[in-house]
Amino acid sequence: MSNDLKKFDVSDYLTDNESIAEYLNAAIEEGDQELLMAAIADIAKATGMQAIASSSGLGRESLYKALAPGAKPRFETVYRILQALGVKLTMTPQP
């Protein structure tokens, strides 16, 4: 018996703005900056790096560097990527 399992890739499920926003909110709730950046990278991959690079005004190579594991991109860069992904930041007070 063979256990041929397909490797899970979350980007296969990030097909609309609602699922993208839910995924980002779940990452934010964890309070882990690296997890949030990994989620943004997953979404950029699902959307298309070239499209995000063009929409954000960043070079494709710069986008890959900003979203690489362990990278510490500037807030301006992250904000531009989020705008290109079609999501907006909103703040609410903590309970």
The mean pLDDT is 92
Q: β content, as a range? A: under 5%
Report low-confidence residues grouped into runs of 5 or more.
none
Describe the main β-sheet briefly.
Answer: none
Series of H and E elements: HHHHH
| Rough outline | globular
Distance between the termini: 51 Å
Secondary-structure-based class equals mainly alpha
- Number of E-type strands: 0
Number of domains: 1
Q: What's the Cα radius of gyration?
A: 14 Å
Total helical elements: 5
Which bin fits the share of residues in helices?
Answer: 55-70%
Description:
With 95 residues, the protein is mostly helical. The protein has one domain. It contains 5 helices and no strands. It has helices spanning 17-30, 33-47, 49-56, 60-66, 75-85.
Which characteristics define this entry?
95 residues, mainly alpha
Summarize it.
With 95 residues, this protein is an all-alpha fold. The chain has one domain (16-85). It has helices at residues 17-30, 33-47, 49-56, 60-66, 75-85.
